DNA sequence: GTACACATGTTACTACCGGTAACCGCAGTC
DNA sequence: GACTGCGGTTACCGGTAGTAACATGTGTAC
């Protein structure tokens, strides 16, 4: 067999006490191998490839993760947790609201800029092949990352900003809208790079600050 | 067990006189069959299923559309054109800017509300299985529909709103941000239905009108 | 020591997918 | 007739997710 794995198995013959830990360790090793493959081959990496990278064969992967979407979910959770943590600290770093917004936007954009493969993987989740029986579940389109982001941001807004009666609902709406804006603009920016990151952050913050509503009409604006 | 046992054996004597059916007609028929299947089975409908629905077999589909992504592109173009046309008229319907924004948002949301399958298909494009040789093209994540929407809205904003020097770039940034906001919030709303469409439209317009920036801090807001 | 249970791993398979080669039969036209 | 183009098919290829069955080591009970 091929000795492709980077870290050699520690050759540890005594495993009587820590069998449970061994399973956890193994699982983490498999996840790391999967990570390497997914980041190299894209989200449609095959289970065979992942198994080969881990130095084992498919059925073991299935024993650990159930199916492909299970593996991908586990993989996505790790990265999502990381990004969420970064965003939480960003949201708490400043006291001025505008600064907070800009800082958060910048953190997100920096993340997707420095590791676009991770980003792409998180946005194109499992795409679970076996359609769930009854025709077409409308829900569950967006990547779970965006949902979680939206919900977290919603609670943050709701508990920090006074929006009057019905403010919680409004906060959630805004949160999902803001996350969508961040995602959409970030995705476009990442692929076209039309400006600097700072420029993008400022422009989006300006948009959220209502500059669109106060700008003047263009003199010869077509009304066709 | 599925192959060849389906109903495609219709003797079909009604084809002798009028073979005037040009390739275009055939193509449109195939597209309509594909539409039916995709709207029934979701975006991962198989070519076999589409061919069966059209009463023919796979190779004919491939002769007409090249490959699966070709078929899906043709399919997506139809729907995209329809939605874009609706949005264009919505954007021109009112003179007041706020009304225009609300009207446009509402048109988009109404579209995805009344035909969520179409919407889902447009947002999860081909996902072309054969990864394009060189590792991992970072660009081309988002559905083409969103890109087109963003670009069109960008030109509309640029030509109607006076944003000063560098306004065109700013308009494009805002446009992609707004489209992302619309998409993200719409997707979340569609799957959770936390409020009425009108409520969502108003809230998003409020967000764009800068209400977030002028709201008061909550008294006991945690600063942890 | 032997027997059992269990975790870890393998090979070899099914069922299906996108895509293609090769062939078949029927129009029309010299 | 023969020859060509076209709409159609069957039968295949390579690759995918997922599984069954079998092979091992390893710790524990008797």
Automatic annotation (TrEMBL), chains A, B:
Offer an example of a GO molecular function term for this protein: transcription cis-regulatory region binding
Task: Supply the alphabetized keyword list.
Answer: DNA-binding
The answer to keyword DNA-binding applying to this record is: yes
Q: Where is the composition biased (Basic and acidic residues)?
A: 11-27
Residue intervals annotated as DNA-binding region are 46-65
Where's the HTH tetR-type domain?
A: 24-83
Q: Where is the composition biased (Polar residues)?
A: 1-10
Q: Which InterPro entries match?
A: DNA-bd_HTH_TetR-type_CS, Homeodomain-like_sf, HTH-type_TetR-like_transc_reg, HTH_TetR, Tet_transcr_reg_TetR-rel_C_sf, TetR_C_32
- Region annotation (Disordered) maps to 1-27
PANTHER family named among the record's database cross-references:
HTH-TYPE TRANSCRIPTIONAL REGULATOR RUTR, TRANSCRIPTIONAL REGULATORY PROTEIN (PROBABLY TETR-FAMILY)-RELATED
- Protein's recorded name: TetR/AcrR family transcriptional regulator
